[in-house]
Amino acid sequence: MSSLSKDELIVRLGGLVMRWQDATQRYDEAVGARWRLNASERLCLSLLMHGPQTASAIAAETRLTPAAVTALIDRLAGRGFVRRRPDANDRRKVMVEAVEATHALAREAYGPPQVAGAALLGQYSPAELTVFVRILEDMIGLQRGLTEALTAGGGQTKGPPGGRPEDKEQSGV
User: Fold this and answer.
1) Under DSSP, is residue 95 helix (H, G, I), strand (E, B) or coil?
2) What residues in the chain have per-residue pLDDT under 70?
3) Is 96 left (phi over 0), alpha (psi -120 to 50) or beta?
């Protein structure tokens, strides 16, 4: 692969990142199918794995209306994945937190990929991992910025270049 030019490597990397995103999405959809969780419910549970959140934080993460977030929290609470509790600092606020069922789901669904991924990454040197971390952090920042621009109406909204999904592979990162 070292015989590829920088431009060729960038195109190849862009295609690989998109395939990785697609593979991750398919895995998350399989997790959703197995535990009967839709995309918004999975986003909510993922957010709650970082600690208790307000309904407004959940709304921002899932891009749902307050009424839809209330229904989402009700569904997840009814299924034993979350609970509401008063905020320790402001008793008027309600916090939503993940409970053991969510942690068990995360261990079962995401524990094996985490272990396998750590073993795979263990094959690389600290210098290689440092570059990979930098690339991922930069790509996450890029995606967040592009998503904000797109949702604000400032980005492309008519689909991939050429207007066909099969053009996606050639469109780069």
Assistant:
1) strand
2) 1-2, 154-173
3) beta
85 touches 95 (CB < 8 A) = yes
Region for 142 from its dihedrals, namely left if φ exceeds 0, alpha if ψ lies in -120 to 50, beta otherwise = alpha
Residue 112: φ, ψ to 5°: -60, -45
Q: Quote the CA–CA distance of 70 and 56 in Å, as a whole number.
A: 10
76, exposed or middle or buried, with CB in 10 Å at 0-12, 13-18, 19+? buried
Q: What whole-number distance in Å separates Cα of residue 56 and Cα of residue 129?
A: 36
pTM reported for the whole predicted model? 0.76
In contact, 59 and 20? CB cutoff 8 Å: no
Question: pLDDT tens-digit profile of 76-114?
Answer: 999 999 999 998 888 889 999 999 999 999 999 999 999
- The distance of Cα 43 from the centroid of its chain, to the nearest Å, equals 7
How many whole angstroms separate alpha carbon 91 and alpha carbon 77? 20
- Residues 60 and 36: their CA atoms lie apart, in Å, by 22
Residue 10 near residue 171 (C-beta atoms within 8 A): no
